């Protein structure tokens, strides 16, 4: 027997639409772990290149997060670049570069649309990490901190990629309002209004659309898997020799299905 406190909460579309960001955060239970890293990031401004060259990381993702935070305090976005591998195709070094790295293709004089503003400046700033053969950690092998372009002014850095991290509470708010039938544009407009403007939002309109697209694709994928399993279960009911084997990943998501009907099983028994 369940008490009223244990019963699931049902909400109408109107009630969901009326939820504020704070209420969504409370309902999602995600607010407790959603802490800001601004103080830790700010400390990086005191690090000199010589200090960074002495650093080690547990893995390449930790190195990537560090370089992204370094870019935040200095005003440049970053991206993953080249990978070095040994003869067994195992990664042994990894480059992270300023997003201004590279050269823009020569402009066409016949293009119909106006070219976008320059974002690639052949910048040489980068960090390379290599794996230590002894302890397996990743150390900074190369660190170039000189940029060929102006960095992003402080007043615009909240638009930088590293600063635009959608919290679990924000994602929960989007999911709640999508379930209530709101369009993505309406969800973003409401969030902007609640935050008091884009400057306080913490993510861009494109970030929201990318998140919704990702969620939609995952839902479609899960639906396809459920349909396939239902079909195979029906085949099992009709064929006592029908065989199914499933393979799942660490997150319990279906990645492979093997099946064989009675005819295939009989053929294999006879011919191998």
Automatic annotation (TrEMBL):
Residues 65-151 form the FAR1 domain. Pfam families: FAR1. This is FAR1 domain-containing protein. It comes from Linum trigynum.
């Amino acid at each position: 027997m369940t008490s009223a406190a244990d019963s699931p909460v049902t909400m109408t579309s109107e009630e969901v639409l009326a939820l504020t960001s704070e209420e969504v955060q409370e309902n999602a239970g995600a607010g407790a772990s959603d802490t800001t890293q601004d103080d830790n990031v700010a400390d990086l401004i005191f690090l000199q290149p010589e200090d960074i060259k002495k650093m080690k990381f547990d893995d390449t993702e930790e190195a990537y997060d560090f370089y992204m935070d370094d870019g935040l305090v200095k005003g440049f976005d970053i991206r993953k670049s080249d990978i070095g591998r040994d003869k067994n195709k195992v990664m042994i070094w990894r480059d992270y570069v300023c997003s201004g790295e590279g050269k823009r293709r020569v402009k066409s004089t016949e293009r119909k649309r106006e070219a976008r503003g320059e974002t690639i400046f052949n910048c040489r700033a980068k960090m390379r990490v290599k794996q230590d053969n002894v302890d397996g950690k990743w150390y900074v092998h190369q660190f170039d901190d000189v940029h060929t372009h102006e960095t992003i002014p402080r007043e615009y850095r909240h638009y930088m990629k590293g600063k635009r991290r959608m919290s679990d509470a924000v994602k929960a708010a989007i999911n709640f309002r999508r379930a209530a039938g709101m369009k993505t544009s309406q969800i973003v407009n409401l969030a902007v209004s609640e935050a008091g403007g884009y400057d306080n939002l913490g993510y861009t309109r494109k970030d929201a659309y990318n998140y919704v697209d990702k969620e939609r694709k995952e839902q479609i994928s899960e639906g396809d898997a459920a349909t396939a399993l239902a079909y195979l279960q029906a085949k099992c009911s009709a064929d006592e020799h029908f065989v199914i084997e499933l393979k799942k990943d660490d997150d319990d998501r279906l990645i492979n299905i093997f099946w064989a009907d009675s005819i295939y099983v009989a053929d294999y028994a006879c011919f191998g």
